[in-house]
Design brief:
By secondary structure, the protein is mostly helical. Helices cover 54% and strands 5% of the residues. The strands form 2 sheets. Strands 1-2-5 form a 3-stranded antiparallel β-sheet. Strands 3-4 form a two-stranded antiparallel sheet. β1 and β2 form a beta hairpin. α7 packs parallel to α9. The longest helix is centred in the C-terminal third of the chain and has 27 residues. It is globular, with a radius of gyration of 26 Å. It starts with a helix and ends with a strand.
C-alpha cells in the first residue's frame, strides 16, 4: 500500500528528530553568548530595540530627513510626458549632447512649477543630521516608505543640475549636484544593508550627473572645490560597517521567533513539499539546538565581513576568499545548507557587498580627481594637465589610489576632453574605453569619469 506523500514527509521529519537527539546536536550556548558579549562591549547593538536606539533620534529643527520628505510630498508634476526622468518621459540626452528645444521647455516648466519644494530640498540638506521615521524594532517587517520619495528627489535634483548646465547656469548646476550628495548623506546613519545600497546608488547617480554637467559647462573654482570636498567626505564614512551590524541584529532576532514564523526560513524546499513539512522542520530547528548552531555559523561569517569593513579599501579584496571559503562550508555535504537555513539564505547575498563597495569608492575617487583637473583647467586657460602628478600638491595631496589594485588612478586625454578611471573588477586596464549598448546606455569594464567638453 502506497503511503500518502504528506505521511512520508512527516515520517522522515520524525526520523530526523530522533537522529538529532541521538547524535546530540543540541549544544551549549557559550560560543554565541561570548560573541554577543563582545558586541556589547564594543558598544554595538544586539537586539532590535538596541538597534533602533543606535539609529539616534534627531530634533526636528536639525533633521534633514523629515524636511526632505515634506519637500517631496509637496512636489506636483506638471503631467508632461516630455520631462526627462518622468514615468513616461524621455531620457536625458547623452553626455555632451545638446537638448532639443521641446525638452528644455518641458523641463523649465516642471522646475518652475515646483520652485518651492525644490528650494525646500536645497534648504533641507543644509541641516546637520538626518533620521528617517523608521521603527527598527519591527525587524524584518520594518516599513521603508521613505525610499521611493528620496530616490525621486535624486532624479529631480539631477534634472535641475542638467537643465542648469544646458542653460549656462553653472552656479545652479553645482548647487543641485551638492544637494544630490546631501540627500545621499541622510542615509549615512541608517544601519541596514538596503539603506547602504540606496546610498551607494544615489552617489553613483550624483557622479554620473556631474559627468554630464561638466561635459556641457565649466563650473566655478569655488563650486568645484566644494564638490571635491563633498566627494571626499562621502568616501570617508563607514556606512558599510553600520549596515553589517544592523543585518546581524536582524539575524539575531530569530532567537525570538516562534516556530511557525521560522517556517519562512525553509521556503526553499523542493516544489511540491507540503507546508506542514516546513512547519515541522521549523519546530525541529527551534527545539534541537540547530538554530543556535546556525546563528553561530552566520555570525562567524558576518564577523568576517565586519572585520574586513575596518580595513583599508585596498585590503578588502584579500578578505573576500576567506569569506567565500566560509560560505562554501554550507555546501560541504548535501544536507549542510538545509541544517543552516538562515546562513544559506543570507550569507551568499553578502558576496557582492565588497565588490560594490570598491566600485563606488573607485568612482568617487575618480570624481574627486576630475574636480581637481577642472580646477587646474580653469587656472591654465582651458589646458588639461599632462598627467595627474601635475595636480599635486595644489589640487590634490596625492594622486588617489585605485582600490582595485592599490596603484594610482589612470588618466588619459582625448580630442574632446579626458577620462579618469580605475581598472575595474576584472583587474584589466581597458584604457577607460567605453561602448554603447543597444539601449543607448554607455558602459565600460573600467570604472570611469569622463568629461567631453
Amino acid at each position: 500500500m502506497k503511503l500518502p506523500r504528506a505521511k512520508v514527509w512527516l515520517a522522515l521529519a520524525g526520523l530526523l528528530l530522533v537522529l538529532l537527539v541521538l547524535v546530540g546536536w543540541s549544544r551549549e550556548s557559550g560560543p554565541l553568548e561570548r560573541r554577543l558579549a563582545r558586541y556589547r562591549a564594543a558598544g554595538q547593538p544586539t537586539t532590535l530595540a538596541e538597534l533602533d536606539a543606535w539609529y539616534a533620534r534627531v530634533p526636528d529643527s536639525e533633521n534633514a530627513a523629515t524636511a526632505l520628505l515634506e519637500a517631496a510630498s509637496a512636489w506636483r508634476p506638471t503631467g508632461s510626458t516630455n520631462v526627462p526622468g518622468s514615468l513616461e518621459g524621455p531620457r536625458c540626452p547623452k553626455r555632451g549632447e545638446a537638448w532639443p528645444a521641446a525638452l528644455l521647455e518641458a523641463t523649465r516648466t516642471e522646475l518652475a512649477s515646483n520652485a518651492l519644494p525644490l528650494a525646500q530640498m536645497h534648504a533641507a540638506v543644509e541641516r546637520p543630521r538626518g533620521r528617517y521615521p523608521l521603527d527598527l524594532r519591527a525587524g524584518a517587517s520594518v516599513s521603508f516608505k521613505h525610499l521611493l520619495p528620496t530616490q525621486g528627489m535624486i532624479k529631480k535634483l539631477g534634472l535641475e543640475a542638467r537643465y542648469a548646465a544646458e542653460t549656462s547656469d553653472p552656479e545652479r548646476a553645482a548647487s543641485a549636484l551638492l544637494a544630490m550628495l546631501g540627500v545621499a548623506r541622510t542615509f549615512e546613519e541608517e544601519p541596514l544593508l538596503i539603506s547602504y545600497m540606496i546610498r551607494v546608488s544615489m552617489i553613483g547617480v550624483s557622479v554620473e550627473t556631474t559627468e554630464s554637467v561638466l561635459s556641457r559647462t565649466a563650473l566655478p573654482e569655488e563650486q568645484l572645490r566644494r564638490l571635491q570636498t563633498a566627494f571626499l567626505e562621502a568616501e570617508a564614512t563607514n556606512h558599510l560597517m553600520r549596515a553589517i551590524v544592523g543585518e546581524r541584529c536582524l539575524a539575531l532576532d530569530t532567537l525570538n521567533w516562534p516556530a511557525p514564523k521560522m517556517a519562512d526560513l525553509f521556503s526553499g524546499l523542493p516544489d511540491g513539499t507540503p507546508p506542514l513539512v516546513a512547519t515541522t522542520l521549523a519546530y525541529l530547528y527551534d527545539g534541537s539546538g540547530l538554530e543556535r548552531q546556525d546563528l553561530e555559523f552566520y555570525v562567524e561569517g558576518i564577523d568576517q565581513l565586519a572585520e574586513a569593513a575596518t580595513r583599508s579599501r585596498s585590503e578588502m579584496p584579500a578578505c573576500l576568499p576567506v569569506f567565500q571559503t566560509h560560505i562554501d562550508r554550507l555546501y560541504s555535504y548535501f544536507w549542510s545548507g538545509w541544517l543552516r537555513p538562515l546562513s544559506r539564505q543570507q550569507l551568499p547575498l553578502y558576496t557582492r557587498v565588497f565588490p560594490r563597495e570598491l566600485r563606488w569608492v573607485a568612482t568617487l575617487r575618480c570624481a574627486q580627481t576630475a574636480m581637481a583637473i577642472e580646477r587646474w583647467r580653469l587656472a591654465h586657460g582651458g589646458a588639461l594637465p599632462a598627467w595627474l602628478g601635475d595636480l599635486v600638491p595644489q589640487y590634490l595631496p596625492a594622486v588617489p589610489e585605485d582600490p582595485l589594485d592599490g596603484k594610482p588612478l589612470k588618466y588619459h586625454t582625448h580630442k574632446t576632453g579626458y577620462v579618469v578611471y580605475s581598472i575595474g573588477e576584472d583587474g584589466l586596464d581597458q584604457g577607460g574605453a567605453q561602448h554603447v549598448d543597444g539601449s543607448g546606455k554607455t558602459h565600460s569594464n573600467d570604472y570611469t569619469f569622463t568629461v567631453a567638453r
